[in-house]
User: What shape does this take?
Amino acid sequence: MFNIDKFLHKDTLPGSQKWNGFPIFNFIGGHNDEELVPLKDLEKAAKKVILENGKILGKYNYTGPLGYLPLRKFITKKLKKGAKMDCSEEEILIVSGSLQALDLVNETLLRNGDTVIIEEACYGGVFTRLSRLNINIEGIPVEEDGININKLRDKLTSLKNQSIIPRYIYTIPTIQNPTGTVMSLEKRIDLINLSKEFNIPIFEDDCYADLIWGEERPPSIRSLDHSGRVIYCGTFSKSIAPGFRLGYLVADWKILSRILPYKTDAGTGGLEQLVLAEYCETYFFKHLKTLNKQLEIKSKIMCEALDKFFGNSVEYKKPVGGIYIWVSFPKKVDTKILFDKSLEVGVAINPGVEWSIEEENNKKIRLCFANPTKKEIEDGIKSLAEICQKQFGIPLNIANVN
Amino acid sequence: MFNIDKFLHKDTLPGSQKWNGFPIFNFIGGHNDEELVPLKDLEKAAKKVILENGKILGKYNYTGPLGYLPLRKFITKKLKKGAKMDCSEEEILIVSGSLQALDLVNETLLRNGDTVIIEEACYGGVFTRLSRLNINIEGIPVEEDGININKLRDKLTSLKNQSIIPRYIYTIPTIQNPTGTVMSLEKRIDLINLSKEFNIPIFEDDCYADLIWGEERPPSIRSLDHSGRVIYCGTFSKSIAPGFRLGYLVADWKILSRILPYKTDAGTGGLEQLVLAEYCETYFFKHLKTLNKQLEIKSKIMCEALDKFFGNSVEYKKPVGGIYIWVSFPKKVDTKILFDKSLEVGVAINPGVEWSIEEENNKKIRLCFANPTKKEIEDGIKSLAEICQKQFGIPLNIANVN
Assistant: This one.
């Protein structure tokens, strides 16, 4: 028999394990509430668009390599309304999920040994991607009102003194993942000014920005910049459903035209673009309201469960949007061990070590609340508290248990 | 203003030009006949599956990272019937078009400076991909009954003598792209034996195999191998529509588990998988019959146009399947110039130089016949003949013109 293991190069990634289904209490991943996928309206949209316009699926990229034109047109409207951004459909590239946006930007801008600046903590997939590309990651702490501008300035200065040009500053300014913070307008402007001063681009990931309910959504960084240095991405995974692999990259054509040659997949899913374009035109903003109302309720259930079972032994900020809470434990809790132990009883969490390179964040975890039911949240957080108590003596008492 | 061109690394790909629509006479690309996209049945399938099962779109990869289980189950049936292959749904990875299959296999197996063996001529996208990865390409000529086995043996021996291990032999055995040839059963067995002797994997690309009408479809190479060395890929782009970005990789789990970690796109389009699974279960084989009947008619229209306008000044083999004809011109015709000149009047062709590294193939072109209408085929081939005559004096006379 052929032995692939002996045949492969030494640096090939380790093999996958067989998939055993989702954990019972699934507090990880960007899954949404399945009950909130707008099936009836999606079906209506699908019917109309397949019968009236479906034959265009017979061609690759019917309305050009940037993606389905009616969807791009809707996105310009959506960005105007939500992100306060003016852009033309020629500045939008439809991608197969915002992860493809990350990959395309990285392929265009980064080479082995390059340096990038990110917020810290930050979306876990960013670390795995940048590590694979052998990129030097410089993390800047995130405060209540967004990235620490002074530390960013210090870092940029120090890099400049070493003749290192960071290839971009990556930021999730609105509902930062995982901290849930929203960057203030002032800091957005400061960030643009700094990036001008050091002449580097900003990569603005606005994937969760549609899911804001607790405060007013600030203008996107790209809408505030007039120097053409902001590359922006967004997604429909969070606002409609992650099963739709649809996101978008927005940049001035001078930048987009350099990114586009790296999209060699012969286009993003045509049926999904057709259906979503049709759906969004009529239903998007109405659906977003419903969705955010429900997500706010779910977030409260999660907060109440944390308060009930952990008392004041953990700290977190009440979400103003999004689908996750960034929870901080006392120092003695090693969340990597907590992750291992809780997974044994079917509770899945993101330990800080996967979302950060700063030791400081090892005592934190990310908990996602959109997908599990009320009962799953309550039972799962209770289980987590029990395991944490057994392992680390924290919390000291568990409400309604001890 | 920010100047991206100055900021980029020197080896960044050149920028894209703005898209100006499809050429009038479009004889390139894997587009299908738009009139043959089965809209009504797709709509019925979409309705049923969205209403009954659509909520699973709320999760990423609902039935696991290999893709939607009912679709994988259908593919096992389809492969049994068409490719004569036994495989389990655990040996199938749904991918976002077969180009992603190429990328995943390349990422897993290839590193800078590696060598691979391909058929020559071969699908153009293979050359661009391998060149970007800095791979040494060794081409083996294709005969009427498939790859030249003796030349393959010589090449493998010569590489072995240089201590070079080719990372795979890439073949499109059924309706080879662009030659349209079908590899004989005997050669399939010879190819497996050779790859065993030299202990290398085979990468079997069966993307066009469903579109065979002129002769019996031979068993796939993977169905004839018992050593677990064949990585197989297929697609629904050709049998249903290229707008569906759905293909599949088939390999023993030992191989597939090493490929899977490179699929970091959070899953292939969920809606497209749902709809296609539902559609295929009822309609796939019936649709394939209709499609192939129409494609055969289209291929005859193209052959008649070639005969009419080029007479015996060009040579080609009548297609027994697929969507393209590989046409050979007299030596004095430089098809790269023909390509440039014909594009000026809206006739798009694939010049041999894009599909081959052998100078021998410079005098050939690939013509796709599935997408253009009867009239477009006739008018376009007439235009092509006129340009070719003007430029190279070939053909000497054009029927009904001179």
Summary: Chain A has two domains: 4-38+286-392, 58-283. Chain A has a mean pLDDT of 96. The first strand of chain A starts at residue 25 and ends at 26.
